[in-house]
């Protein structure tokens, strides 16, 4: 049986708030995510629980944000808690139309105090297994270099060389250092660099200047890479989401 094509979406959810934290818009974000009809949704900065926000906002969901966003469209989901504080936690999540057979969150936090992580999932697709890693790297260049080394080590240890692999998320890599490192250590290629020669500019969402968000793939063909930069997306997060179709 041949493997299916996959539509992938990567989004920094900004904890369900508008770019300047003025309004809680998780319901609007859910409606926008549904329109993409993605098979896999890579989420960063998604909240697990937050007792203070739950008291302040009447429309705060009774379930974790990733479950609320998954709704009935994505039957499987996994969450990696990165940041823990007195009122709750947030981290990375993966929503999937296909069964997630394994998931593990890897702590990538370093001495700067930023809580970061890699959520590694193994999905069962018709025709084979797919590895997916949702990434959120730090703001400091020194931390990002070390985190890329950790990511390369994770892939070498836990992902077979012949396995299809997607690594997506918020890399904060405004100096564009990740491309060569990930290609050299893991054979990964960024979808927009492959298609256009340049990574997509995604931050800030309303006037994108920096290419912070990425979708890297291995053993896949790429089509229709797209930056979701127009309304409503430009008002739903501080990062513009990325989407692409992948084929094996």
Short description:
The protein is an alpha+beta fold and 248 residues long.
Structural account:
The protein has 6 helices and 12 strands. It is α+β, with helices and mostly antiparallel strands and 248 residues long. The chain has one domain (6-247): Deoxyribonuclease I, Chain A (4-Layer Sandwich). The strands form 2 sheets. Strands 3-4-2-1-12-11 form a 6-stranded mixed β-sheet. The chain has a 6-stranded mixed β-sheet with strand order 5-6-7-8-10-9. Strand 1 (6-12), helix 1 (26-36) and strand 2 (40-50) form a beta-alpha-beta unit. The longest helix has 18 residues, at 141-158. The mean pLDDT is 95.
**What is the top-level CATH class?**
Alpha Beta
The largest beta-sheet arranges its strands as 3-4-2-1-12-11
Structure summary, number of beta strands: 12
Tell me the distance between the termini.
12 Å
The biggest beta sheet reads: 6 strands, mixed
Topology as a string of helices (H) and strands (E): EHEHHEEEEEHEHEHEEE
Could you say which overall geometry the principal axes of the C-alpha atoms support? globular
Mean pLDDT: 95
CATH-level-4 superfamily name = Endonuclease/exonuclease/phosphatase
Q: Helicity range of the residues?
A: 10-25%
Strand content: 35-45%
Number of separate domains: 1
Q: Report the CATH architecture.
A: 4-Layer Sandwich
Count of discrete alpha- or pi-helical segments spanning 4 or more residues:
6
CATH fold category name? Deoxyribonuclease I, Chain A
List unreliable stretches of 5+ residues. Answer: none
Would you tell me the structural class of the helices and strands?
A: alpha+beta
**What is the C-alpha radius of gyration, as a whole number of Å?**
17 Å
